[in-house]
Each structure stands twice: as structure tokens, then as C-alpha cells.
Amino acid sequence: MTDEPLLSVRALHKSFGALHVLKGVDLSVRSGEVSFLIGPSGGGKSTLIRCINFLETPSRGEITFDGRSLCHEDGAVFHVAPERVLREARSEMPMVFQHFNLFTHRTVLENIIEGPVLVKRRRRDEAIADAERLLREVGLGDKADFYPEQLSGGQKQRVAIARALAMRPKLILFDEPTSALDPELVAGILDTIRGLADLGMTLVVVSHEMSFARKLADVVHFIADGTIVESGPPDRIFDNPESPRLSGFIRSILH
Ligand SMILES: Nc1ncnc2c1ncn2[C@@H]1O[C@H](COP(=O)(O)OP(=O)(O)O)[C@@H](O)[C@H]1O
Ligand SMILES: [Mg+2]
After folding, report:
1. Residue 173 Cα, ligand 2 centroid: separation in angstroms?
2. Residues 6+ apart with CB under 8 A from 36
């Protein structure tokens, strides 16, 4: 047993050209913890989780995941781990996107086994057996040979979740997983995510579903203008916000 967080982010910065988006983010995630990131549009939530698993390369700062440094600073020099290390880390903290990001020309089953076979080098027959079990678990046991366009948005998002689980992840990053769904499909996906939390999976969730965050989160981080303005347990964040910025945000989403 160790007290080390599974994921540790320190003084993280990200610029796109002249646009300084992340301005020194500190974030720790413990194993088994459910963290929610909330905040106004354009505040840097997506950029932060994309930097965490190196879909974007940070500009400065430190990320440590499961005991491995993904990037750090040594004096004035910014070091990034070799691509092999980044690829492995990325496979252990897959992302579930708002728009599913499935391969449209591949079947549901092929979408799920691609990562395990190509990245994790699992045997194809084992990856298929695993994928079939995961599809049953997310309620899509009969959809293995379908193509994404033959599925509803909620079913596509379940495939994306099964694809993430097929990597046997240590952490799953969700970027507004229900924002693209018709309202009647949202609850099913929230239930699926709740099921992962109940199993003890470590989750980092960007979401505008505040009542869901209140019920599920161990900790809520409020991000605005590229920094974490306030963090705390959900009741504290929603009922007793300290900063004017957070109280304003909460008022704006409740009315
Ligand atoms: N690839 C990119 N190139 C240039 N600017 C970007 C890119 N991705 C995000 N941004 C900018 O970074 C800021 C933060 O965006 P984002 O992280 O998507 O915020 P959020 O997810 O909180 O809505 C926005 O101003 C956005 O336009
Ligand atoms: Mg976003």
C-alpha cells in the first residue's frame, strides 16, 4: 500500500500558439476515486484531460501516472517521456469522448478489440472473448457485428465505454459523455458510469450533469480560465462555494 496518488499533475501549462489555455493546474487523483471537472465552456477542461493522457502535449509542468513520469521539468528544460511510455500510459487511461469517436467502417467488435490486439498485444481470440463479455455487460451482447451507424447515440457511447474497459484501464477519462445524446438516452449512460464507480474504477469525468456529479463524485474541481479555482467534496462545492466565480457558475446552471 502506498499513499501516492495514481495520477499527479503539477503546475501544468498548455498554450496553443499565443493562446495560453492551462495556467498552472495542480490535480491529484487517488486510486478508486471519482473526480468531476466542472466549469464554464472554454475554461480548459478538455485541454486538461487531453494533456493528461497526451492526446495533447503539455507546454510545461509535471504529470506522474502510476509511478511513471510522463513529463517533468529539470531546471528550465521540459522533459517528455519516450513515446513508448506515453503510449502505454494512454492505453491505461483511455478517454470516452462526447462524440464517441468510433471507427465508422469497423464493426462494434472490431472497434473494441483494436486497442487490446494492436496496443496491448493480446491474442485475438482472447480479445474477442473479452469484448463479447464487455458488450454483454453494457447491454449490447447482440450488437457485436453491427456498424456504429446502425446504433443509437446511447448504444454508441456504450460501445465506447466497452472499448475503454477492454484496455483494462487504471483510470478512465470522460469528456462530456452525455452531451451529444438525446435526453432520453442520458440516464442509461449515467447508470453505466455509476456502475463503473461502484466497481471501484478510478474515473475523471468532465460533465455538466450537476445532480449526477453531486451523487457520484468524491471530489469536484471547478475549472475556469485555465486554473482550478476551487476543489472539494460535492456538497461543499455546490452548497457553499467560496469563490464568487464558482457561486456565479452554480447560479448560472441552476437558472
Ligand atoms: N487544438 C486547439 N487549438 C487551439 N485552441 C484550442 C485547441 N483546443 C482548445 N483550444 C482553446 O482552448 C480553450 C479551452 O478549450 P477547452 O479545453 O476545450 O475548454 P472546455 O473543455 O472547458 O470547454 C478555448 O479557448 C479553446 O478554443
Ligand atoms: Mg470541453
Report:
1. 12
2. 205, 206, 207, 213, 216, 217, 219, 220, 221, 234
